[in-house]
Amino acid sequence: MIMPRRKKPSPRQERILQFIREFIEENDLPPTVRDIQTACSISSTSVVDYNLRLLQKEGFIRRRPDVARGIELVGMARGHTSSLPRIPVLAYIAAGEPALALDAEGWSSGEPMETIEITPDMVAGRRDLYALRVRGTSMIDALVADGDIVLIEPARQANNGAMVVARLKEENETTLKYMYWEGDMVRLQPANEQMEPIYSHSGNVEVQGRVVGVIRLMR
Hints:
Blueprint: H1 11-27, H2 33-39, H3 45-57, E1 61-63, E2 71-73, H4 79-82, E3 86-94, E4 99-100, E5 114-117, H5 120-123, E6 130-135, E7 149-154, E8 162-168, E9 173-182, E10 185-189, E11 198-201, E12 205-215
Parallel strand pairs: 3-6
Antiparallel strand pairs: 1-2, 3-5, 4-9, 6-7, 7-12, 8-9, 8-12, 9-10, 10-11
Helix pairs in contact: 2-3
């Protein structure tokens, strides 16, 4: 079977391909569209995206729309991109009314729903990160929407005003909220003016992790 020949890239596309290769070799991860725009002196990110689509169509690159740095050069050693950190998405987390917890020890015993790649800057030296997929809209004003993924750093304590995964021990339920200590009580505050906060005795509230990042879905 005779395979059709790929079109020769334009000079601009050649510069883009060369920059992608050099960036991956130097940083061990792909560049963003903005990186390409700046390095190649291109007028806008939309022009970069147009050329990337042409390069993908001709088979020079592959792109993953679910990953911010999702450009891969066809034929380049896969080890360059496989080093991106991968973290498990363990479960859904309720951003609304609290939902039944996985278990009393937290999320660690749950089998991952999926794994996702994140960039090294999102890790920032943190260990044992995991992710939860959001259900509900109680944190919508904090730019955490239904279906988004929150990155969690395991923790048993959190500062006032931190966004946390909180477990209500007696109810064995978990929720995603801002947490405030108010004397012997804890206020779990939604970021949605249409929803009321949850109040509970401090001894009944267990912090299971702090939110350190959000991965937004394109809608």
